TrEMBL record:
Keyword Oxidoreductase: yes
Protein name: Fumarate reductase/succinate dehydrogenase flavoprotein subunit
Coiled-coil stretches: 499-526
Domain of life: Bacteria
UniProt xrefs under Pfam families: FAD_binding_2, Succ_DH_flav_C
Organism per entry: Glycomyces paridis
Ranges where the FAD-dependent oxidoreductase 2 FAD-binding domain occurs: 15-433
Domain Fumarate reductase/succinate dehydrogenase flavoprotein-like C-terminal: 488-600
Length: 637
């Protein structure tokens, strides 16, 4: 039997297919199974190996365990401020309201969070959050989250067995990459993929699909993301007819490792700053005090003494500027390095050694301690770390309905990092783990509901054969090596679409990307189909390409600076741009951009902010109708 014999295709079927086994995918799978549906979860990497497992700092939820003043309204306000008011307000509202329940629910599934002295779930400070809000397990929160959700999956499988089912109705297939979605009449009906280990093909019929594939970070060389984050879900959705929004907004986390070169980009958790670490330049100055933007001046300390007092007395002092939202801190580091005040290897210093005792550091930041000791031979209890910005997260993603997580394609849902809107132009730390729990659950629930009313779809041999032919094309090509092409793509993005952008450079990026298009279409793979990472990368490249074009086009169009999009030639936020989402779709294989209104916040939610604050972001006609209720002002709510 030849390699590409159609008879080798495995045929599977389920009610709800979940693509991605990170936090969003697993939470969706649990919900869909609890709703009585048969579920298949597919994961490109090993089961359990997802971004979620790498999450360090914690999950943001206004439980009020450490500061009783916290509540969903304060969390909502922080999230909108962090996103510079471009967020889909309804997603931010649902997220703030439901995150505490999603965390407590994890406890009922068996999660063991760190505790306060009174025995409640402990919560830590993070940038942009007014109160300590991140439920955590040391600096290994994602590991506990994934462990717990996997355990829940196993218990649901055991329930199936106890109920006498011959096979569980919740199946997990790992090391399998989905390369195509099947669409008929504007609705999804299944997916096609290959097993990485054997190269064998698989076709899965399903009336409802949840995309939970994470981000795009591997389109940049310096990134905290791992190999599988190649924008697959974003690209699958585009090709299926769904839309992407806000693709210009990419988060460069301020603190990645910068030395040695082999580990450049690996994340240094924000918890280091949340737990007292400060940023210094080569002159030993705490430079963040020079970078507090006008819109945040009221909330951040303007001197080190007040900033330091805040750690023990947050009710009477303002936060230190090291805890500004990530976009602000990343830009500040970039400016210090550019001004010649950087560290030896092109970053700045992050110092916790002079601020906390060695035992506290080792207890609160065990992974960071080991990471620096083992990878850089630096003892963070005795010396500062060298850090610099690293591509970390994409705020842009599949446009979804806030309540149902449904995309524009019938039966196609999205949750977690692959979806867009929730975080506006910049995500606050900790808001991703809570986002994926809240919207993972919703996606599972509504996908199950969609499947209930749907007929079992049929996949045709012709469409399966076409998907197989596409997947095998690199073996017949005589083009370039996929690794060389990935490097070329990363170089364009890093040089021209990075942390600071200019119109001329973005135009250059689009020209260079266009030149890469045919080279990527002609990428070649050699060898057999079993365990062939070169072939796998060849298939991923077209996804990275289309995401990169969407980002560069939107970054060129948005001539203002906001959150994770900084235009040197258009500094400052423009209130007119705040009203606009840039929406990408695919027409005849080309990425097209359209402008779409950002949904207007309800008067009740506008009323949670003071007019003076809204006036910094919005035009007068937008906030003019806001009635500021004195009982819910920024200080009191
Ligand atoms: C080092 C690090 C630390 C972080 N710390 C925090 C933190 O403390 N708090 C916080 O809120 N956020 C944090 N984040 C961000 C957060 O972890 C991620 O945004 C989040 O986990 C994304 O979850 P997800 O479920 O959307 O996707 P992921 O967890 O990324 O999972 C994606 C899944 O999709 C699969 N997949 C991808 N493509 C395909 C395909 N084609 N076919 C089949 N499967 C596919 C992958 O194999 C994987 O199973 C951190 C991120 C990193 C990198």
């Amino acid at each position: 039997m030849s390699d590409n014999d159609i008879n080798e295709v495995e045929h599977l079927a389920c009610d709800v297919l979940v693509i991605g086994a990170g936090g969003a995918g697993l939470r969706a799978a649990v919900e869909a199974r609890l709703a009585g549906k048969s579920v298949i979860v597919i994961s490109k990497s090993l089961f359990g190996k997802a971004h979620t497992v790498m999450a360090e700092g914690g999950a943001a939820a206004a439980m009020g365990n450490v500061n009783a003043n916290d509540n969903w309204q304060v969390h909502f306000r922080d999230t909108m401020r962090g996103g510079k008011f471009l967020n889909n307000y309804r997603m931010a509202e649902l997220h703030a309201q439901e995150a505490p329940d999603r965390i407590w629910e994890l406890e009922t599934y068996g999660a063991l969070f760190d505790r306060t002295p009174e025995g409640k779930i402990s919560q830590r400070n993070f940038g942009g959050h007014e109160y300590p809000r991140l439920a955590h397990v040391g600096d290994r929160t994602g590991l506990e989250l994934i462990r717990t959700l996997q355990q829940k999956l196993v218990s649901l499988q055991q329930d199936d067995e106890a109920a006498g089912e011959s096979e569980s109705k919740l199946q997990v297939i790992d090391e399998t990459t989905i390369t195509e979605l099947f669409i008929e009449g504007g609705a999804v009906k299944g997916a096609f993929g290959y097993r990485r280990a054997t190269g064998g093909f698989m076709a899965i019929a399903a009336p409802a699909i949840v995309l939970a594939t994470g981000g795009i970070g591997r389109s940049f060389k310096v990134t905290s993301n791992s190999w599988e984050y190649t924008g697959d879900g974003h690209a699958l959705a585009l090709r299926a007819g769904a839309k992407l929004i806000n693709m210009e907004f990419i988060q460069f986390h301020p603190t990645g490792m910068v030395w040695p070169p082999s580990v450049r980009g690996i994340l240094v958790t924000e918890s280091v700053r949340g737990d007292g670490g400060v940023l210094k330049n080569s002159a030993g100055e705490r430079f963040m005090f020079d970078y507090i933007p006008e819109v945040f001046k009221a909330q951040y300390a303007d001197n080190p003494e007040e900033g330091d007092r805040w750690y023990t007395d947050p009710d009477h002092n303002r936060r230190p500027p090291e805890l500004l939202p990530r976009d602000e801190v990343a830009r500040a580091i970039n400016s210090e390095v550019k001004a010649g005040r950087g560290s030896e290897h092109g970053g700045v210093y992050l110092d916790i050694a002079s601020r906390r005792d060695a035992e506290t550091i080792r207890k609160k930041l065990p992974s960071m301690y080991h990471q620096f000791k083992e990878l850089a031979d630096v003892d963070i209890t005795a010396e500062p770390m060298e850090v610099g910005p690293t591509c970390h997260y994409i705020m842009g993603g599949i446009e979804v309905d806030a309540d149902t997580a449904a995309s524009a394609v019938a039966g196609l849902f999205a949750a977690g990092e692959v979806s867009g809107g929730m975080h506006g132009s910049n995500r606050l730390g900790g808001n991703s783990l809570s986002d994926l729990l809240v919207f993972g659950k919703r996606a599972g629930e509504y996908a199950a509901a969609h499947a209930s009313g749907a007929e079992s779809p049929k996949l045709t041999e012709a469409e399966i054969a076409a998907a197989a032919e596409d997947a095998l094309r690199p073996f017949g090509n005589e083009g370039e090596n996929p690794y060389a092409l990935q490097s070329a793509l990363q170089a364009v993005n890093g040089r021209l679409v990075g942390i600071i952008r200019k119109a001329g450079e973005l135009e250059e990026a689009l020209t260079e990307l266009a030149a890469l298009e045919s080279r990527i279409a002609n990428v070649s793979a050699s060898g057999g189909r079993a365990y062939n990472p070169g072939w796998h990368l060849a298939l991923d490249l077209r996804n990275m390409y289309v995401c990169s074009v969407a980002t560069a086009k939107a970054a060129l169009e948005r001539d203002e600076s906001r959150g994770g999009h900084t235009r040197e030639d258009a500094p400052g936020m423009d209130p007119e741009w705040r009203k606009i989402n840039l929406v990408a779709s695919l027409e005849d294989g080309e990425v097209r951009l359209t402008r779409q209104d950002v949904p207007a916040m309800t008067p009740e939610l506008l009323g949670l902010f003071e007019t003076a604050e809204l006036s910094k972001y919005m035009t007068a006609d937008e906030y003019g109708t806001a009635t500021t209720d004195p009982s819910t002002t920024v200080e009191e709510a």
